[in-house]
Amino acid sequence: MASTRDTRTVMIVDSEPAQQRFLSALVSRGGWRSIVAGDTDTALAKLGTQEGMGLDAVLVDQGTPGVEIAEFVSQLRSWRPALPLVVITMRNGVEVAVAAMRAGATDFVQKPIAPDRLLGALDRIVNSSGPQGELRPLTEKLRAPLGFEEIIGSSPNFRSALAIAAKAARARVPVMIKGKPGTGKEVFARAIHAASPRSRGALVMVDCSAVSPGLIGSGLFGHERGAFPGAFDRQIGRLVQADGGSIIIDHVECIPLETQAKLVEFLNSGEVQMIGGTIRQTVDVRIISTSASPLDKLIEAGHFREDLYYALTAAQFTLPSLSERRGDVGPLARHLIDRIGGLPGMGSIGVTDDALRLLASYAWPGNVRQLQDVLFRAAVASKTDVLTSADFGAIDAALSGGTVPASEGNIAINGEAIGVTLYLPDGNLRPLEEIEADVIRLAIGHYRGRMSEVARRLGIGRSTLYRKLSDLGIDTAA
Ligand SMILES: Nc1ncnc2c1ncn2[C@@H]1O[C@H](COP(=O)(O)OP(=O)(O)OP(=O)(O)O)[C@@H](O)[C@H]1O
């Protein structure tokens, strides 16, 4: 659960004093406070203390003495269903990781621990509901670039987007791909590059939603040493790295105005000038940009430059949401299940027709990504190698209750009670911000992601809603 407090606390569960010190020092670099438990029993006992109540995450080493790691995870889950928990596994500990995930771990990180990856995983799990650490790279393998012929979808609105994309791929002009989160914009962007005459050139990607706005400019254009506080070394920009190839500018709507002006200049001149530099370098790059927000509204509000919009949209198309192409859900689910089955530790998985029918009747506000995540979680949790409707029980209940699966355990979705749990298992009330976050998630699900309606029903303005989403770390794509 995300916290708006300045310092977040993680419990490190590890028996090795040196490793405890290493992990404590590491997390403190990311602004985390830590408490330590030397074995799993102590860790479980600490959960009930005042200190334990204030925890934001738990980090447990696979080799910690006490109960088996999966047992520890399920015990912790029964007490604190929503507390993010990351398991540190041995280098090739995929099996342990899968067992821990089956028991309810949020994520896992393999040794040797890469500091940035661990900190990134911790930050993201408290700021969103999806798996992000090693699991993200694991599911990321599903993202192996797809050629146009492998992109699944036969509904007319999807086929027409495919036709525009395939035609645009052959030209050099900038392409803009629009669509709600998780609709497959990045998949299309990669396919466009792969099918273009410059496919042998580099493909460089910048996700502007993942970089702080102040750093997008230096990421794109590079900077000279000392160009601004913190620019310790000279850095080549992504545009230069993509010379001769393509650059995917993901979530172009997040680029601040100042950088937009520089981008317009580049599009007009074909020349890149590093921040703090004087030399201009000619760069031949094809820009493929994506946007999940209505850019016309941003232009109207003065947040996006109209000239940049036109420069980036020589070719453009919008990917339909999954609910607008329900007929594709079955084939997509089969395809994704095949790919999930190919992941380490998984093995071949089947799916029944009933389950596919159930999946096709669902609204999928998070689109293909949500479908993929739900399938992945079901495959990990399933005791058999064929997924049935029962493996998607939460969705079943959601359908009958008119809501969507919750991303965290505190929204009861088992069909008995669709609502928000106010109490901790020990009978104490949950913190207000956790309850508030769950109510907002519930509302987003109930109103199928229609944010104006969510804001109206909750009696708050849209901007307040978006601020709360960001403060509470709610990922609307989940
Ligand atoms: N047609 C498809 N066939 C197979 N897999 C797909 C398809 N579309 C999307 N996916 C999978 O769904 C996930 C989300 O796709 P992608 O990242 O391209 O979405 P996006 O629209 O760029 O999302 P966001 O706006 O949140 O960045 C990816 O893991 C991708 O592999």
UniProtKB/TrEMBL annotation:
<feature type="modified residue" description="4-aspartylphosphate">
    <location>
        <position position="61"/>
    </location>
</feature>
<keyword id="KW-0597">Phosphoprotein</keyword>
<keyword id="KW-0805">Transcription regulation</keyword>
<keyword id="KW-0547">Nucleotide-binding</keyword>
<keyword id="KW-0963">Cytoplasm</keyword>
<dbReference type="InterPro" id="IPR058031">
    <property type="entry name" value="AAA_lid_NorR"/>
</dbReference>
<dbReference type="InterPro" id="IPR011006">
    <property type="entry name" value="CheY-like_superfamily"/>
</dbReference>
<comment type="function">
    <text>Member of the two-component regulatory system NtrB/NtrC, which controls expression of the nitrogen-regulated (ntr) genes in response to nitrogen limitation. Phosphorylated NtrC binds directly to DNA and stimulates the formation of open promoter-sigma54-RNA polymerase complexes.</text>
</comment>
<dbReference type="Pfam" id="PF00158">
    <property type="entry name" value="Sigma54_activat"/>
</dbReference>
<dbReference type="Pfam" id="PF02954">
    <property type="entry name" value="HTH_8"/>
</dbReference>
<dbReference type="Pfam" id="PF00072">
    <property type="entry name" value="Response_reg"/>
</dbReference>
<dbReference type="InterPro" id="IPR003593">
    <property type="entry name" value="AAA+_ATPase"/>
</dbReference>
<keyword id="KW-0010">Activator</keyword>
<dbReference type="Pfam" id="PF25601">
    <property type="entry name" value="AAA_lid_14"/>
</dbReference>
<dbReference type="InterPro" id="IPR002078">
    <property type="entry name" value="Sigma_54_int"/>
</dbReference>
<protein>
    <recommendedName>
        <fullName>DNA-binding transcriptional regulator NtrC</fullName>
    </recommendedName>
</protein>
<keyword id="KW-0067">ATP-binding</keyword>
<dbReference type="InterPro" id="IPR001789">
    <property type="entry name" value="Sig_transdc_resp-reg_receiver"/>
</dbReference>
<keyword id="KW-0678">Repressor</keyword>
<feature type="domain" description="Response regulatory">
    <location>
        <begin position="9"/>
        <end position="126"/>
    </location>
</feature>
<dbReference type="InterPro" id="IPR002197">
    <property type="entry name" value="HTH_Fis"/>
</dbReference>
<keyword id="KW-0804">Transcription</keyword>
<keyword id="KW-0902">Two-component regulatory system</keyword>
<feature type="domain" description="Sigma-54 factor interaction">
    <location>
        <begin position="151"/>
        <end position="380"/>
    </location>
</feature>
<keyword id="KW-0238">DNA-binding</keyword>
<dbReference type="InterPro" id="IPR027417">
    <property type="entry name" value="P-loop_NTPase"/>
</dbReference>
<dbReference type="InterPro" id="IPR009057">
    <property type="entry name" value="Homeodomain-like_sf"/>
</dbReference>
<keyword id="KW-0535">Nitrogen fixation</keyword>
